[in-house]
DNA sequence: CGGAATCCGACGGGATACTG
DNA sequence: CAGTATCCCGTCGGATTCCG
């Protein structure tokens, strides 16, 4: 079973995106539906096990949907739900902040 | 030594806030300077070891400053830097998103 | 192709006791 | 008061191999 839902909203958000890969997966899926292999390729260095684990967790949390096509060879597509997509502003903010941070830290430490 | 700085801005941001406590610490310090004991009390359930570890890491990352008063009994104050404080918008977004998420999920699963 | 299975190490974190 | 010092544990993630 999954973890408890914290009462604090910040913790809730963190619970969903605070691991190493989830945000990067979301980032990729913001461009649109993708297949397992596409995700694996575009997310540099993730192992299939970890990718699967993260995708399943995110599915369970309602951030994305998994669609299996009963074909040979198999085909599985992942798509963000509306809830998942609504994280976009936060991701955008993180891009901005991260960029700024790198700039400032460089000045500070150099 | 600390971790490598990722090139991707999102990863940079995540590196700094993706653990269980850092965001909550920032959240507390957004109200203003606080002492070790105050943080420990207001952050529910954190152990002194972990709190120390996180504070030191955040200090090293330039998110906050640590000020020691050479008194007996000791007094140590923690204050956000400008960089640390600039995370506020993201935290605010996380509050909003987390609140929405809880609302929507309740509808879905119930 | 999209995983599942296995093994394994590292790290974050928890509880508790102790100290300058 | 503000930490250290231990010890211990669980989870995440990495690498690799195998399967339907």
TrEMBL record, chains A, B:
What keywords tag this UniProt record? DNA-binding, Transcription, Transcription regulation
Q: Any keyword Oxidoreductase?
A: no
Ranges where the HTH hxlR-type domain occurs: 8-106
Which PROSITE patterns does the annotation name? HTH_HXLR
Q: Which residues cross the membrane?
A: none
Q: Which GO terms describe its molecular function?
A: DNA binding
* Protein name (database record): Helix-turn-helix transcriptional regulator
């Amino acid at each position: 079973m999954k973890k408890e839902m914290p009462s604090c909203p910040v913790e809730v958000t963190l619970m969903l995106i605070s691991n190493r890969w989830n945000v990067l997966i979301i980032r990729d899926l913001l461009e649109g539906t993708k297949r397992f292999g596409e995700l694996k390729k575009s997310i540099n260095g993730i192992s299939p096990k970890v990718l699967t684990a993260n995708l399943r967790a995110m599915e369970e949390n309602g951030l994305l949907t998994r669609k299996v096509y009963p074909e040979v060879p198999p085909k599985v597509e992942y798509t963000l739900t509306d809830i998942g997509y609504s994280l976009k502003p936060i991701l955008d903010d993180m891009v901005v902040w991260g960029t700024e941070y790198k700039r400032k830290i460089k000045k500070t430490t150099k």
